[in-house]
Amino acid sequence: MRKGFTRSVLIAASLAGGLMTQAALAADQVTYQLDWLPGGDKSPVYVGVQQGFFEDEGLEVSIASGRGSTDAITKIATGQADIGSADIGSLMAAKAQDDSLPVKAVYSIFNQAPHAFFTLEKNGISELTDIEGKEVATSPFTSSNAFLPLVLKENGMAEDAVNLTKADPGALGPMLMNGGTDAIIAWVTNIALFESQADATGNKLVVLPWSDAGLELYSSSVVASEAFLSERPDVAKRFMRAFDKALKFTSENPRAAAEDLHSMVPEVDVDVVTAQIDDTMELVINAVSERDGLGALTRERVALTWDWVAQAEKVEKDKLDPESIIDRTLLEAL
Amino acid sequence: MSPKLPDGKAGQLVLMSAPWLFFIALIVLWELVCRIFELPAYVLPAPSAITAAFFEVEMSRWFTHLWATLRVALMGFAVSIAIALPIAIAMMRSELLNRTLYPLLVVIQSTPVVAVAPLIIVLMGSDDPSRVLITCLLTFFPLVVSTATGINETPPELIELSRSLDAPTRRETWQIRIPYAIPHIFSGLRVAITLAIIGAVVAEFVAAEEGLGYFIQFSTSFFRIPQAFAGLFFLAVVSLLLFKSVQWAQQLFFPWSLPKKKR
Questions:
Q1: In A223, A245, B158, B215, which residue has its Cα 20 to 30 A from A168's Cα atom?
Q2: Alpha-helical segments (H) within B207-256
């Protein structure tokens, strides 16, 4: 409501003043909500701004950082943002709790699970089943934790086959390098960061992605508020078109994408972000995207995702029709 | 036995430089520990690494972040003063208000702001007003309490005297009670200004695009621990300067409210 008010004030002011140019009047404002702080995996939207993909579609996009998927979903639901990125599993879990949540998934960014075990070569864990009985550290609020028992079970181990400790995300890398834990749980988007820590201590990093262990699902996705989709469908379509272009550009030009992010968020390091983008793109462009298309949300994989999420969140499967959280109109208009 | 103070000019010099020498010794010790035990930067960065990280960030970026934090902290501080002083005065004047408001104030104070902050952001949006509110929640309680204590500690003889002279309550408040409360108000202000910085940082941890708290969080998200430490030190220095500024303000505007040797 407040945003609507600001917008109408802006429009009124520009009409009254007659000072704003035609182009500025025509640009539609869109607020994009990230689910975490800016980083390599979030770069496509920055690329869209810097490369002018949004401008070409007559859009003016502002980007807000977030503090986790539920934070992003809440902000989109309450109208603080129009569209943004969030874990589709979090959206499903939230929707199963509260059917009235006015948010829909419109485009998949990661078509694979980003979760993985990270360990050091000297720890003697070379395949997933070696993890049995080991010390594993994870951060308290990551969505990975819910999937851990399922991954262990899928690989023939007991659900509590590892000794799990929880620590701040920033402490996980140091704990692993110091020998404070045998392995940690983190996202594959951060392989390069952990690798540099391992190199600094003369170790060799080993990554065991859970997607190789049978965890087949959609993860980070573009989600939009129902109000945005129904009240400004044309703006939404133009946004998605530009975003799709930006995602392709990011995968083809990781360094240029990193520079685009750097020019809007000067604190990020271009080399680090380039490496992050390379790691991230494995989750975006792969056999699944080859088969289904970039951004696709296929019925089968959506259902499969809900299977995993329902088990992980310990929710009855019939609490939610996973199709009810999907809106494919933007994908169809690409 | 009371501690023996050094006398004379030399003694004064020792007294003046002692905190600095102690501080420098700590830094040197820290640097040595990091070097001797070869601690990696992500465990505990050495002061030299922190300094280097500080200068790696452009000064203009530091000022952008500093201004973002300072703006919210000072706005929250100002709003707190504007709310806390009238509340304290009203509570002093009316026993009914005192009884009604005090429990509520204690409830607000005992609720962890960190837990409420995300709710405030959801309710009020992620703009300045919610950040200022989060800051106020931390700062205004010590101000109310210290002001109310000060007002109540006015010597009863003076109050009786003013009443016997038929002075109106307004004059009793402004010319007797408030001046007596000044030292208490300032001790409340000193506590509040450091809490204001904490409040602004808490708000930035929940929702912000800039600010020193955001910068620290951002640095750790990239595992840049020395840079996070640099932000932390910058924050501490700012907090210290603000604390000092409150003292200077007291010396400048209310020198009579200080003990003689501190004027």
A1: A223
A2: 212-221, 225-253
Residue A5 banded pLDDT, cuts 50, 70, 90: very low
Taking only the tens place, the pLDDT of each residue in A292-314 is 999 999 999 999 999 999 998 88
Structural domain of A249: 2-112+217-332
Whether residues A170 and B220 touch (CB distance < 8 A) is answered with: yes
CB of B96 within 8 Å of a chain A CB? The answer is no
The percentage of chain A sitting over the pLDDT mark of 90, rounded to a whole number, equals: 75
Contact state of B218 with A272 under an 8 Å Cβ cutoff? no
Q: Is residue B244 part of a domain?
A: yes
Q: Is the pLDDT of residue A17 over 60?
A: no
Which residues in chain A are closer than 8 Å to B49, comparing Cβ atoms? none
**B216 neighbors B230 (Cβ within 8 angstroms):** no
Domain that holds residue B11: 1-38
Chain A residues close to B215, C-beta within 8 Å: 267
Mark residue B94 as left, alpha or beta (left: phi above 0; alpha: psi -120 to 50; beta: remaining).
beta
Q: Do B57 and A267 touch (CB under 8 A)?
A: yes
pLDDT of residue B5: 58
Tokens of B95: 């026993």
Q: Rounded distance, CA B200 to CA B69, Å? A: 6
Q: Are residues A128 and A55 in the same domain?
A: no
pLDDT under 50 in chain B at which residues? 1
A38·B208 Cβ contact <8 A: no
Q: What is the DSSP letter of B222?
A: T
Which among A64, A75, A272 has CB closest to B209? A64
> Which CATH number is A243's domain given?
3.40.190.10
Are the beta carbons of B209 and A71 separated by less than 8 Å? no
One domain for residues A37 and A101:
yes
Indicate whether B17 belongs to any domain.
Answer: yes
pTM: 0.85
Q: What three-state secondary structure class fits A230?
A: helix
CA distance B102 to chain A (A): 34
